[in-house]
TrEMBL record, chain A:
PROSITE patterns: ABC_TRANSPORTER_1, ABC_TRANSPORTER_2. Its main location: membrane. GO terms for biological process: peptide transport. GO terms for molecular function: ATP binding; ATP hydrolysis activity. Residues 9-260 form the ABC transporter domain. It comes from Kribbella antibiotica. The lineage of its organism: Bacteria, Bacillati, Actinomycetota, Actinomycetes, Propionibacteriales. Keywords: ATP-binding, Cell membrane, Membrane, Nucleotide-binding, Transport. It is found in: Cell membrane. This is ABC transporter ATP-binding protein. Gene3D superfamilies: P-loop containing nucleotide triphosphate hydrolases (3.40.50.300). It is a peripheral membrane protein. Belongs to the ABC transporter superfamily.
Automatic annotation (TrEMBL), chain B:
It is found in: Cell membrane. Its main location: membrane. InterPro entries: BPD_transp_1_N, MetI-like, MetI-like_sf. This is ABC transporter permease. GO terms for biological process: transmembrane transport. It is a multi-pass membrane protein. The keyword Transmembrane applies. It holds the Pfam family BPD_transp_1. It comes from Kribbella antibiotica. Belongs to the binding-protein-dependent transport system permease family.
């Protein structure tokens, strides 16, 4: 866990709602996290837990309406991205904070060559000439290990394999040497071997640049491989925040525990894989109190009363579970 | 690229044979005697009739007539109509009329269609969008014939804004009213297509990527959304342009524009198989050519279907 780097992006109490014909739906509720230079922060959660929505809201690419930021701040080096004008934000998002998305085939413009798409970053943010921008784009493709980069820059997205396309996405995101890279499930659509290559590449480029990486994923394996710290989200809430090692070895929240328990491992060979009973709640009908309560093996009556606050159980460890946080406090006394 | 074009042209030949043969057969099967139609109620001397019949090979079997017509067309020896007009001269006079009408109508249709479609696509559920939906339903429900006669009566006869018919006022005055009506009848469908295509494209992931790159809205629109949203519209363009000739038959007859459509109408009325087949061949050739051009254009716009 790198606690030394400068805090680059600090999200505080972010709440996002969607307006639907049947009333507003809260997709992200009071989420806070931060990422430092050189740190990899994983945001872990199932689909619908609000992990992508939170980053899309703070970068301003969330469709608004129907989306709506109800409260919260997202400070990049002290400047609040949410409060600033679109024009000001565009100078930061796309330049200092960049993003990589899951499905690289649909995330790249199908009718533009990849070189042109990367060069666009230099043209818009650095004002480079077309020729220089294309040259830099080819260099960038080379940096993400695309063979014959200068030639391939003229190719179109559909002419690349999935892994190569994700490298193109990375080249585009890293073209301007950003401070923070937000990678939204960057390896989900890829084969396991290619997945590892991409993650390694991100780690390598991160080390070179001392960049903060926010890695959104639903894959615990990915988290344990590359993340320094992890934020676990459930139904729009942060339920646990810890260093990766601590979260994986001694999960505090029962949800994290359940996720870990349902990971296949050699020890469980031949046995049925344990699962968390039930399904994640619909955002329209989040249970009262703790949203995880109906699926929780240790839930008690009090869990239904209030949304459990995110409490610090140990230095650098927060969890939102009244059963565990009170327990831990008792233990600490 | 050259090979691709050649392949397309060669593939068009059998289709051309089937189309011309079919058209000729249909004209041949029409009831009535062409020369008697031409003469009206006047009696024709038997010798004249026989000479005319021989000149136009009317007593030969169907397939011989067809082959003779095709030979004339392919050798550029178009001959004369039953009434004695030189067909080559007729074509020289009439092709520009139809081209002017079709192109002007397309200018109107595309201007209205693209403007409204793009606007409605970006301002979804705004009042322009809603009125466009209504206008589409109304326009699609109005038969072309009704619209042409109504426009001719209201704007030509009553208000006198446009000439009622004919081409005496030259281009573009004489062509404005029919072109506007064609354009208005056709623009709504095009606008809907453009709108739907934009609505689908603005939600695409690559548009999100473009925004995440910190691009301005104008750049996102012109560089990322429109080039992709235009693709289905280009396909529509080909079909639409090709269908214009069919529409010209009605429009030119109603507005008395001496173009190919009117020529076709007269030829069908007189059962002049040679002329009908000649005009059908022309329409067919332009159809093939326009489709080829559209396919090539599509290849330029969309690298995924590029032909090597």
């Amino acid at each position: 866990m790198t606690a030394t780097g400068e805090v680059l992006l600090k999200v505080d109490n972010l709440t996002v709602e969607f307006d639907t014909p049947r009333g507003p739906v809260r997709a992200v509720d009071g989420v806070s996290w931060q990422v430092r230079a050189g740190e990899t922060l994983a945001i872990l959660g199932e689909s619908g837990s609000g992990k992508s929505v939170s980053t899309q809201a703070l970068t301003g690419i969330l469709e608004m309406p129907p989306g709506r930021i109800v409260s919260g701040t997202a400070e990049y080096r002290g400047a609040d991205l949410i409060a600033m004008t679109t024009k000001e934000r565009r100078k930061i998002v796309g330049d200092r904070i960049t993003m990589v998305f899951q499905d690289s085939l649909s995330a790249l413009n199908p009718v533009q060559s990849v070189g042109t798409q990367i060069a666009e970053c230099y043209r818009v943010h650095r004002g480079l000439s077309k020729k220089d921008a294309l040259k830099r784009a080819a260099e960038m493709l080379d940096q993400v290990r695309i063979p014959a980069a200068a030639k391939r820059a003229r190719d179109y997205p559909h002419e690349f394999s999935g892994g190569m396309r994700q490298r193109v996405m990375l080249a585009m995101a890293l073209a301007l040497d950003p401070d923070v890279l937000i990678a939204d499930e960057p390896t989900t659509a890829l084969d396991v071997t290619v997945q590892a290559q991409i993650l390694e590449l991100i780690a390598e480029l991160q080390a070179e640049r001392d960049m903060g990486v926010v890695l959104i994923t639903h894959d615990l394996g990915v988290v344990s491989d590359v993340a320094d710290n992890v934020v676990v989200m459930y139904a729009g809430h942060v339920v646990e925040r810890a260093s990766t090692a601590a979260a994986l070895d001694h999960p505090v929240h029962p949800y994290t525990e359940g996720l870990l328990g349902s990971m296949p491992s050699a020890d469980l060979k031949g046995q049925e894989l344990p699962t968390i009973p039930g399904t994640p709640p619909s955002l329209r009908s989040i249970p009262s109190g703790c949203a995880f309560r109906p699926r929780c093996p240790i839930a008690i009556e009090e869990c239904a009363h209030d949304v459990p606050p995110l409490l610090t159980v140990a230095p650098g460890r927060d969890a939102a579970c009244i059963r565990r946080t009170t327990l831990a406090e008792k233990e600490a006394v | 690229m050259i090979r691709y074009i050649l392949r397309r042209v060669v593939a068009a030949i059998p289709i051309g044979v089937i189309v011309t043969l079919g058209v000729y057969a249909l004209v041949f099967a029409m009831p009535g005697d062409p020369l008697r139609e031409l003469a009206g109620d006047k009696p024709i001397p038997a010798a004249v009739l026989a000479a005319k019949r021989a000149q136009f090979h009317l007593d030969d079997p169907f397939i011989v007539q067809y082959l003779l017509s095709m030979k004339d067309i392919l050798t550029g020896n178009f001959g004369t109509t039953f009434a004695g007009a030189d067909i080559a001269d007729q074509l020289r006079l009439r092709i520009p009329v139809t081209l002017k009408l079709t192109l002007l109508a397309n200018v109107f249709q595309w201007t209205f269609g693209l403007l409204f479609g793009i606007y409605a696509g970006f301002k979804r559920n705004g009042w322009i969008d809603r009125s466009l939906l209504l206008a589409t339903l109304v326009l699609l429900a109005v038969p072309g014939l009704v619209a042409f006669f109504a426009a001719q009566f209201v704007f030509g006869v009553q208000l006198k804004w446009f000439p009622v018919s004919g081409v005496l006022d030259g281009f573009p005055t004489s062509y404005l009213l029919p072109s506007l009506v064609i354009g208005l009848l056709g623009f709504a469908g095009l606008a809907r297509l453009m709108r739907t295509s934009i609505v689908e494209t603005v939600n695409a992931d690559f548009v999100k990527t473009a925004r995440a790159k910190g691009l301005g809205e104008q750049r996102v629109l012109w560089r990322h959304i429109l080039p992709n949203a235009m693709l289905p519209v280009v396909t529509f363009l080909g079909l639409d342009l090709a269908g214009m000739f069919g529409g010209a038959i009605i429009t030119e007859s109603i507005f008395n524009l001496p173009g190919l459509g009117q020529f076709m109408f007269q030829a069908i009325k007189l059962k002049e198989g040679g002329v009908v087949v000649l005009l059908s061949t022309l329409a067919f050739l332009s159809f093939i050519l326009i489709n080829l051009l559209v396919d090539l254009l599509y290849g330029i716009l969309d690298p995924r279907v590029r032909h090597v």
